[in-house]
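Explain this protein:
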Amino acid sequence: MAERESPAIIPTVKKLVEKFVSAYNQGNSSIIASLFTQDGVLMPPGEPPVSGQEEIKWRFHVFFDGFTFDLRLDSLETYFIGDLCFDRGVYTAYALPVEGGVPRGGGGEYTFLFEEELPGSWRISAFGTSPSMEAGTDTSQVSSDAERSYELAATLVDLRNTELKGRRP
């Protein structure tokens, strides 16, 4: 694939991230799943990977049940790895029980991988988080150590390639 001038594509993937955050905060698992490729991969922390739009939709549906959420993402860098676009940053997330109670939350680092399905049409190929903060932690203190983020990106790329190989005839 020919190299692309990334600044022209970055606003497109940033809009996908905004849609993801909006759907997350609305608890809308259908919209979230629609932002993924058909064989997209979700890597929830401490759980097995979830593959495919229907499974991702179900995972978020169960996750959202009984809570409202406040998710915030702060991108640290966006660039390309081969024909995939990579976005990494830090997040804070709070779950508020619908029936009252103590909010739970924390934060950490996130990684998105995007792929172009059709010219100009990008979707989430993989998404994973690495929790590393308790609620109330100042996200500006999170390490911007690229090595840790590259390891997560490499894991997502490897998992993505494995998933694709398993689905090819």
Observations:
- The radius of gyration is 16 Å.
- Residues 1-5, 135-146 have pLDDT under 50 and may be disordered.
- DSSP finds four helices and six strands in the chain.
- The chain has one domain: 7-167.
